[in-house]
Specification:
Length: about 525
């Protein structure tokens, strides 16, 4: 549906399909975008968003039968250069800049002007000054990109697109690595570009961003086009139903006895400190309980988890599991005792992206499959991986697929499955749904609920307050390395965003004593 008073569409993609060996990635997808609008593109990981945009950018070629129109004329996008010539620019999560070059050199990369047979660096500096000023950049054209923040590097990417006269700008999860202040600045820039007539295709899993920015929102599901909503029609209920094909009225799964009597203490942490960022933290985790650690960025939540797990050296503190103190000097000591940790950085610290699903699932228990003479029981490893794929609903063609090719949600479930193979008593989950789509989030909440129903204790660290409120039976709030308050449980106060923020910001006095929270 064309918005009222809008010019003809700048982009039309009609009947776009794409097949990879054994996989139908896109099936007859449509997308219409108008100049001067922010058009959100939403869908679960694996829905086909990236594939569609790679076809638009020339990285992939669509199957025969569909067509792409720019300014109502059919065009043939034969590759990235062809897309750039047509005014199409894509800014991916992983910024495509050369860090050792200057801002000007990056803006002109591949289009360098020459003078006297040499690159005209003075001309490049002068030529990109206007666009940097227009975008409100606070850095200079001669600045080395490696010296810029992530937000500033993103602005260089945008400047490069604008300088090359891009008319259609695709932004893929642009706020993932930005602070709230940097995000606000990016939104101001997006609104400015929209007012200048650029068409912006905005890909995000964050509904709040879609509500704030988008004029329209199109949804893909399982490689198919579901529909488009105009701004006045946007709601969480409609978008969720379009993305996952079902009503998620019970989005935060909590079938365990969340409000009943708590089980016995399964883990007791006492006096945990590293002497710097974590200061004498003590708490109990109960059997069958979801306990959340909340707090502002820098409050010490992840640092506390890593101390408990043995990933970082501690200055003081003890850990008891089922009433028995355990010595944890290294992560393997924790795993052997029944305590596992899901890192917040699944790609950098959790998964081996160039290894298969089967290899990743089996890494923590590979010693169980050794024959005499050091040979591995590959059949047992394969069966374990297949069972994990079924149990956690991992969307993958087979256990032989490399983990790096999977969506974020499926990568997270592979990492979870590896931890679950150790049959842990306690799980520490650090940002378990970061960077995953709404359908995968729901499945991860189901896994957490199943774990506590089976008697495990789960400690969740999350920066998303709605998630904390939705999954937690009890919340401990950290500030400046201390546990300063408890919400829910025996505290008598209900779990709410307001009560958590009050402790996290110091609006209320810390619970006394802060070192004895159970």
């Amino acid at each position: 549906m064309q918005p009222q008073n809008n010019p003809p569409p700048i982009l039309e993609m009609r009947g776009i399909s794409k097949t990879f060996p054994g996989v139908k990635a896109l099936s007859n997808v449509n997308l219409t975008v108008y100049p001067g609008e922010v058009h959100a593109l939403m869908g679960e990981n694996g829905a086909g968003k990236s594939t569609l945009m790679k076809i638009l950018s020339g990285a992939y070629r669509a199957d025969a039968g569909g067509e792409v129109k720019i300014d109502e004329k059919v065009v043939h996008i034969d590759g990235p250069l062809s897309a750039k010539t047509l005014g199409i620019a894509v800014i991916y999560q992983e910024l495509a800049l050369s860090p050792n070059l200057t801002v000007a050199e990056n803006i002109y990369l591949g289009r360098e002007p020459s003078k006297g047979g040499q690159v005209d660096r003075a001309g490049m500096k002068e030529g990109c000054a206007d666009v940097l000023q227009r975008l409100g950049a606070t850095f200079e054209a001669e600045t080395i990109v490696n010296d810029l923040s992530i937000a500033e590097r993103q602005m260089v990417e945008i400047a490069r697109a604008v300088h090359a006269n891009a008319r259609i700008l695709v932004m893929d999860e642009p706020t993932t690595a930005l602070s709230s202040r940097e995000t606000d600045k990016l939104f101001e820039l997006i609104r400015k570009l929209r007012a200048e007539g650029l068409a912006i295709i905005y890909i995000s899993h964050r509904m709040a961003e879609v509500y704030e920015l988008s004029d329209r929102c199109s949804v893909l599901r399982d490689g198919s086009y579901v529909g488009t909503l105009v701004r006045s029609e946007l709601s969480a209920e409609k978008l969720v139903k379009m993305m996952v094909g079902r009503d998620l009225s019970k989005f935060y799964k909590k079938d365990h006895d969340a409000h009943g009597s708590r089980g016995k203490v399964i883990m007791r942490v006492a006096g945990m400190s590293d002497g710097r960022r974590v200061k004498s933290c003590s708490f109990d985790l109960h059997e069958g309980e979801v306990l959340c650690l909340a707090g502002l960025v820098g409050s010490g939540r992840t640092e506390l988890a890593r101390l408990i797990y043995g990933a970082d050296p501690r200055q003081s503190g003890t850990v008891e599991l089922d009433g028995k103190e355990i010595s944890i000097r290294r992560p393997i000591d924790a795993v052997n005792a029944g305590l596992v940790y899901l890192t917040e950085d699944r790609k950098g610290q959790g998964l081996f992206l160039d290894m298969t699903v089967e290899q990743n699932v089996n890494l923590s228990v590979i010693d169980r499959d050794a024959f005499k003479g050091g040979l591995l029981n590959l059949g047992k490893s394969r069966t374990r991986a297949i069972d994990a794929i079924k149990a956690l609903s991992i969307r993958v063609a087979g256990a032989f697929i490399e983990v790096g090719s999977l969506s974020g949600g499926n990568q997270q479930k592979v990492l979870l499955s590896r931890l679950l193979e150790t049959k842990p008593r306690v799980l520490i989950l650090d940002e378990p749904t970061r960077g995953v789509d709404i359908g995968a989030k729901s499945e991860i909440y189901r896994i957490i609920d199943d774990l506590v129903k089976s008697g495990a204790g789960v400690l969740v660290i999350s920066s998303e307050l709605p998630e904390v409120v939705g999954v937690a039976d009890r919340v401990l709030v950290m500030r400046e390395g201390h546990i300063v308050g408890e919400v829910g449980g025996s505290s008598g106060s209900p779990v709410s965003q307001e009560s958590i923020i009050a402790y996290a910001t110091g609006a209320v006095a810390p619970t006394t004593p802060v070192a004895q929270i159970n």
